[in-house]
Amino acid sequence: MASYPGISGRTYVVTGSASGIGAATAAMLRERGAKVIGCDLDDAEIRADLSTPEGRRSLVDQVTERGPIDAVLAIAGGGRTGLLETNYFGAVATLEGLRPLLAQSPAPRAVAVSSTSSLAPVDERVLQACLDGDVAAALAYLDADPSLAGPTGAYGVAKRALNRWVRTVAPTAEWAGAGIALNIVAPGVVDTPAAAWIFADEATRNTVEAAAPQPFGGFPGRPEWVAELICWLSGADNRFVTGQIVFADGGAEAAAVGDQHWR
Known about the structure:
This protein is an alpha/beta fold. The protein has ten helices and seven strands. It starts with 10 loop residues before the first strand and ends in a 6-residue tail after the last helix.
């Protein structure tokens, strides 16, 4: 039987644990000997709606009541309600709200899940409103322009803002200085319920695959492939990686961006 000393015996908080990448990650952690506190709208140890301020506070309060934790995995994303609110404000509130509890662990780790959709062009006004913590302004800008719906709107800008937030706070005294590794995993198109709309129509599937080819692993990817990376980054064996946006996307980001960061 395989041994996972960097995971076994640790306690993980996993948002979005009821389906998709969250479910795959929670299952993998349990198989490797971890205790998992699953959080989702339904079918989870903690039920909370991260699209609302009340839901975010409830999640933090309920986790805090359960005692020590070693890792926080902010995976919840698709959701039945507010894409912008859940994907950015919900993720940040989860990570910030649980940071003091997390810091008590001997090997605290945190991972947020973004997306290759964060590479799409975004409305800078919405992006800045997110980073300023101004939910009302961000939503007002979205509502004023229907063209901002979809991957270049609420979802894409939420993931872009999340990328920027992690890059900004990860090296600070509150995170790295407290021994907490904070990273992002950004999947490509993965076979999950949230992505079902892509596969429901052959023309849509072909269009999406052509726009974001995944030459390594194929199209779509599998949730457990992404979960494997999340598990390592959030485990005690990760002793030197923080502040990184790691694309688990079959090469889609590399194909789209090339070497522009290194010129």
